[in-house]
Amino acid sequence: MAKIYFSDEHEWVRVEDDGQAVVGITDYAQQQLGDVVFVELPDEGKDLAKGDEAAVVESVKAASEVYAAVSGTVTEANEALTDTPNLVNESPQGDGWFFKMTLSDESELEALMDEAAYNDFVKGLE
Amino acid sequence: MSDPEETLLRTPLYDLHCELGGRMVPFAGYAMPVQYPAGIMGEHNHCRAAASLFDVSHMGQVRVTGAQAEAALEALMPVDLATLAPGQQRYTFFTNDSAGILDDLMVAREGEGFFLVVNAACKAADFAHLQQGLGKHGQAEMLEDLALLALQGPQAAAVLSRFAPGVDRLKFMGVAEITVEGLRCRVTRSGYTGEDGYEISVAAGEAEALARRLLAESEVMPAGLGARDSLRLEAGLCLYGHDIDETTTPVEAGLTWAIQKRRRSEGGFPGDAVIQTQIAEGAGRKRVGLRTTGRAPVREGAEILNQAGEAVGRVTSGGFGPSVEAPVAMGYLPSELAKPGTEVSARVRNRTVDMEVAKMPFQPHNYFRG
Predict the structure, then answer these.
(1) Strand partners, B304
(2) ipTM of this complex
(3) Which of B102, B224, B236, B370 might form a disulfide with B360, Cβ 3.0–4.6 angstroms?
(4) Is A115 on the interface with B (CB under 8 A)?
(5) What are the mean pLDDT values of chain B's consecutive 10-residue runs (370 residues total)?
(6) How many separate domains does chain B show?
(7) Are residues B195 and B341 both part of a single domain?
(8) Are residues B339 and B276 in the same domain?
(9) Does A56 touch chain B (CB under 8 A)?
């Protein structure tokens, strides 16, 4: 059963049964950004250390960096976002995923929140 | 620590913005809605298709009076006021001695005097500048008790003429007095979106009633500063402090059209010699439109590079144009690189994005010229 983790920078990391991690931004993040018009994704094979700039998401108004919540190697970028960046708004935790990676240190996941903790965290921001 | 919002000024529509779900942000010392729940893209597209209501009450509205005010104003700005008829407004700017732009503004003849609309961020400095320039020849009064709304879009005239029959015949840059269900308004047929529309000056105490009445019309949606910015960028209109400032001249900025013939030949305004020379010999750099081939927006501050990869200019406004459905930008380039079609590039983060000098406006203007 896939398990999903959340960062305080409004990213989610879903660890699939095969150990691959899928990364994206949360519904709260896409609402804050507004209409996404461009996503710059990391190249396949790129090694990301926790905290590295992993992607850039651009709305009509501004560009925002997405930092790696966990360390690992990028295995696939979501090509669908190239032509349809708006998927990030329509389906942030589904078709609007950003990239997949193999994790280099699974213990980093322990520092992230589960869904209930993240929902509480977001409530505290409102 | 106090909440920074507490120190921000509020327009007469602040409560209405909050009620409508506006996301309030600091802008020029005011708490202003950057967007409503529809979002910047939705608000932008609605304005191009129907009619949108913007609160621009943060801008400065100034009345200038005095028998010699006309000459005193002409000594501060390169506009021809002698040919400015009652019921007409013109776009102009305050210039400094090196022909830099201190602010851009609208000026209309009103009764024995003039009515000015200036940028929010500049209004205190403008007012001091005006008072100093007028001296004993006239008086300037900042009209703090007025709000300013903008109703913009292809259906703006149909909406407003429902309340004020005939206002649809007012021509672009015309000024009229109307009433909307008893509320006295001063309207100009102008705006900052490239669309047809009006700017409506109304007593601060009546602004909310007017806004609610207009928003009750089926064509009208509220729009915030985000959409205002993307709309004006597509229309190729300058944003003060970004595309024009004290270091850019009207000639460099492509605003020579706003300096009428008599003022070009006679001068008599700050920086006149610089402007006359630049008109005669050309300016060394020019404000240009820029398009990209990809989807990545190139934003303000990005360096523009020539074919040799040398930095030759900078983007002054840039973003994604929802109507153009592509990134659009403007910036300054050496005049020899300012011709549409010239290939340049820009540095965005650690990459180089190909760009091409493009004609502005990116989105055709839709003004009513009668």
Answers:
(1) B313, B346
(2) 0.87
(3) B236
(4) no
(5) 68 98 96 96 98 98 96 98 97 98 97 96 98 96 98 98 98 98 97 98 98 98 98 98 98 98 98 98 98 94 97 97 97 98 94 96 97
(6) 2
(7) no
(8) yes
(9) yes
